[in-house]
């Protein structure tokens, strides 16, 4: 699995500023940037450390810039976008803000700031190529000097390595590396006033102790040369284009206290290493750095990724790429010592709903059964009122439980786990650790639990009221509920039937009473098929609430076909799939609302109010493609024509793998062509569901 971009491709700064790379370190931290070497969002840097894994993520080491002098010529390889002269004003006025925002105070979202012309430093013109293979390699050539700069996030540590390998075909070159340092929460931008450190120069490195966190030490060590104190200690007005697109000032600042200067002898080759790490003491942080140190870190990361590919057993590039993408989302949670799933990079933490949906692709399709058990155990441990957590906040606070579907997707994950791992160990684990939690969930939903979640007299599940948003279409700002789906949502009840069917079979396997689950499932099926079928449109209503039935064409109905246990007739299932294909398929995902609806918003960009209005109102979601393809092949069979059609559906995803975050799949896409990728640049359930459906429903029939 390797993605390569040529000199010709990389020469266009503007076309490549949004093409990104990232590497996760397995404890919540990550490295990231653009293929040109410039930065375009706050969530980029060579080391974003997780100070309380997998949360409290802070940018500490932003990047390096390079320049060198040879034969009297200075070559500056810095690639960046800075803010220049003021050319206008960006205004988000109270008139542009939905009324519900104003209940929180219009001043919170009504603002204006100067629009400033971008100023580009295009060191990317010296780039000969960029390669991503799970690590990053920038290849440069200027004058008689060529070099490769490799970057790797160190797995299991808050550390990053930068490895330089030089070939000098000319006279001696004096080479300068400037490390750009920082210490800020990764979703914010910084100012000069906020960057306050106690800096100490060492023999081959320096330490920084952030004034805001004196219990931490940031160390940057290098293998050769000397430190030279800089007169300009701050790089100000860095302009981040993605943040500008979101109608914010998009400005950032970095701390640049030192240059590292060394010579590359004439007609020679040379290796040079940088290593940055965050620790709680100077003794732990400061480690010797040799010329090979960073190369060893790069090689170790590659070996670990090769082992994952060997374990998964795939030989085709598409499955291999998604296997490595899946690994990015797995992280060890410090509070439990167990594996969890980060819902998306760069900003999401571990969400229950996303975890259970992504679970099959991330850890089952990749044969990581030990991690699968840890993930299931983590969420069982945090069960509360019969509900698994909706999310673990980034600030380390107690979990939130405002979700009706995460607990029901948990049954799906358990069923999938047992279908992949058929060992006695797997069955014993489920019976001892998970089955009691499943019984608690069923009881809670039958008797009623938080957020107006309860079983009605017809056996169907009611969820949500007031301003609570408890389905995956959950945007709410203040009192503005963008997609109020209170009542009986279609996918919640499809999941409820699936959960009851799973419990019936588990109870039978464990020698317990199963008849109650079977009878209730029968009641649910009768009520569901009688109340949710929309004969006029030949599909399912999205939500029913008493006599009110929401006939909006949304993708939630696809799960009533794709889940392991379903209720519709074959004719009805085919009708649902055909309608979803016609109205909602949009390249890399399914639209969240059909084009014909008056509330259709196909483009997700601009200020937060504009984005919130589009998030579930026309934006296409990558994860939905998995359920759609499973449903499509269920109703059309796995013959050669159907399999070819499924591959055609996946073709935009294959192209996307080299267009957004290299080697991964984004959270969302615009509903209209060219279906620009948006939101999280790498999303767990997008990757997981596409890998799952490819591995289960397509690959075996090729």
Description:
It is built from 19 helices and 38 strands. By secondary structure, the protein is an alpha+beta fold. It has 2 domains: 3-80 and 125-304, Beta-galactosidase, Chain A, domain 5 (Distorted Sandwich); 323-701, Glycosyltransferase (Alpha/alpha barrel). It has a 9-stranded antiparallel beta sheet with strand order 1-9-10-11-12-21-16-15-14. Helix 6 crosses helix 7.
> How much of the residues is beta strand, in percent?
25-35%
Instruction: Report the helical percentage.
Output: 25-40%
Strand order of the largest sheet: 1-9-10-11-12-21-16-15-14
Structural class: alpha+beta
The total strand number stands at 38
Please outline the major beta sheet: 9 strands, antiparallel
* Named CATH architecture of the largest domain: Alpha/alpha barrel
The low-pLDDT segments are 97-108
Number of domains: 2
CATH class of the largest domain: Mainly Alpha
In short:
This protein has 702 residues and is of the alpha+beta class. It has 19 helices and 38 strands.
Keywords:
702 residues, alpha+beta, Beta-galactosidase, Chain A, domain 5, Glycosyltransferase, 2 domains, 9-stranded antiparallel β-sheet, 8-stranded antiparallel β-sheet, 19 helices, 29% strand
Write the layout of secondary structure elements.
Blueprint: E1 3-6, H1 7-10, H2 13-16, E2 20-24, E3 30-34, E4 45-52, E5 55-70, E6 73-76, E7 79-92, H3 99-102, E8 111-122, E9 127-132, E10 136-142, E11 145-153, E12 159-168, E13 173-185, E14 197-202, E15 205-210, E16 217-222, E17 226-229, E18 234-239, H4 241-245, E19 251-255, E20 258-264, E21 268-279, H5 282-285, H6 293-312, H7 317-327, E22 330-333, E23 338-341, E24 344-345, H8 352-364, H9 369-381, H10 406-420, H11 424-447, E25 454-455, E26 461-462, E27 476-477, E28 480-481, E29 488-489, H12 490-509, H13 515-531, E30 533-534, E31 539-540, E32 543-545, E33 548-550, H14 559-562, H15 570-583, E34 590-591, H16 608-614, E35 620-621, H17 624-636, H18 640-656, E36 668-669, E37 677-678, E38 682-683, H19 684-698
Antiparallel strand pairs: 1-9, 2-3, 3-4, 4-5, 5-6, 5-13, 7-8, 9-10, 10-11, 11-12, 12-21, 13-20, 14-15, 15-16, 16-21, 17-20, 18-19, 22-23, 24-38, 25-26, 27-28, 29-32, 30-31, 32-33, 34-35, 35-36, 36-37
Helix pairs in contact: 6-7, 7-19, 8-9, 8-10, 8-19, 9-11, 10-11, 10-12, 11-12, 12-13, 15-17, 17-18, 17-19
């Amino acid at each position: 699995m390797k993605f390569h971009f040529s000199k010709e491709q990389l020469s266009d700064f503007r076309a490549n500023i949004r093409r990104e790379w990232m590497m996760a370190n397995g404890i919540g931290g990550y490295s990231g940037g653009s293929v040109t070497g410039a930065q375009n969002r706050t969530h980029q840097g060579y080391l974003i450390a997780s100070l309380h894994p997998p949360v409290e993520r802070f940018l500490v080491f932003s990047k390096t810039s390079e320049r060198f002098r040879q034969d009297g010529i200075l070559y500056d390889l810095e690639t960046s976008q800075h803010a220049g002269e003021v050319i206008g004003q960006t205004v988000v006025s109270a008139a542009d803000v939905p009324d519900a925002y104003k209940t929180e105070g219009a001043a919170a979202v009504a603002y204006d700031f100067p629009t400033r012309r971008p100023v580009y430093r295009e060191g990317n013109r010296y780039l000969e190529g960029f390669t991503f293979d799970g690590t990053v390699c920038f290849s440069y050539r200027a004058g008689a000097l060529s070099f490769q700069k490799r970057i790797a996030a160190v797995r299991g540590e808050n550390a990053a390595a930068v490895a330089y390998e030089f070939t000098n075909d000319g006279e001696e070159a004096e080479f300068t590396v400037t490390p750009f340092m920082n210490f800020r929460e990764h979703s914010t931008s910084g100012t000069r006033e906020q960057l306050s450190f106690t800096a100490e120069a060492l023999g081959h490195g320096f330490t920084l102790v952030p004034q805001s966190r004196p219990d931490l030490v940031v160390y940057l060590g290098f293998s050769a040369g000397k430190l030279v104190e800089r007169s300009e200690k701050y790089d100000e007005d860095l302009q981040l284009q993605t943040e500008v697109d979101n109608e914010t000032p998009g400005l950032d600042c970095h701390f640049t206290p030192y240059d590292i200067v060394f010579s590359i002898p004439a007609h020679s080759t040379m290796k040079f290493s940088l290593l940055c790490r965050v620790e709680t003491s100077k003794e732990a942080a400061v480690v010797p750095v040799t010329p090979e140190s960073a190369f060893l870190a790069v090689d170790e990361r590659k070996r670990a990724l090769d082992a994952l590919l060997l374990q998964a057993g795939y030989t085709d590039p598409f499955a291999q790429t998604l296997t490595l993408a899946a690994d990015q989302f797995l992280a060890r949670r410090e509070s439990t010592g167990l594996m969890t799933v980060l819902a998306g990079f760069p900003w999401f933490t571990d969400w229950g709903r996303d975890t259970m949906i992504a679970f099959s692709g991330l850890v089952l399709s990749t044969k990581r059964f030990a991690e699968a058990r840890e993930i299931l155990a983590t969420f069982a441990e945090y069960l509360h009122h019969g509900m698994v957590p909706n999310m673990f906040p980034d600030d380390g606070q107690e979990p939130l439980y405002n979700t009706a579907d995460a607990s029901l997707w948990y049954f799906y994950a358990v069923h999938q786990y047992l279908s992949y791992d058929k060992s006695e160990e797997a069955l014993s684990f489920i019976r001892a650790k998970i089955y009691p939690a499943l019984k608690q969930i069923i009881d809670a939903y039958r008797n009623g639990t938080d957020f107006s979640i309860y079983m009605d007299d017809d056996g169907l599940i009611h969820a949500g009221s007031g301003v609570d948003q408890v389905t995956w279409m959950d945007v709410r700002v203040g009192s503005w509920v963008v997609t109020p789906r209170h009542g009986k949502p279609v996918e919640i009840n499809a999941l409820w039937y699936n959960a009851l069917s799973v419990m019936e079979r588990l109870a039978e396997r464990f020698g317990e009473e199963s008849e109650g689950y079977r009878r209730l499932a029968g009641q649910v099926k009768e009520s569901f098929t009688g109340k949710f079928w929309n004969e006029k449109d030949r599909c399912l209503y999205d939500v029913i609430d008493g006599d009110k039935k929401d006939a909006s064409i949304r993708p939630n109905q696809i799960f009533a076909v794709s889940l392991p246990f379903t209720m519709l007739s074959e004719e009805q299932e085919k009708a649902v799939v055909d309608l979803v294909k016609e109205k909602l398929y949009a390249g890399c995902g399914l639209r969240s609302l059909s084009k014909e609806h008056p509330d259709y918003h196909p483009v997700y960009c601009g200020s937060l109010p504009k984005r919130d209005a589009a998030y579930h109102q026309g934006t296409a979601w990558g994860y939905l493609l998995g359920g759609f393809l499973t449903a499509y092949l269920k109703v059309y069979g796995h013959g050669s024509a159907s399999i070819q059609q499924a591959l055609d559906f996946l073709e935009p995803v294959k192209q996307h793998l080299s267009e957004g975050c290299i080697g991964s799949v984004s959270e969302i896409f615009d509903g209209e062509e060219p279906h620009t990728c948006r939101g999280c640049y790498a999303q767990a359930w997008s990757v997981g569901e596409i890998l799952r459906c490819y591995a289960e429903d397509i690959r075996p029939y090729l």
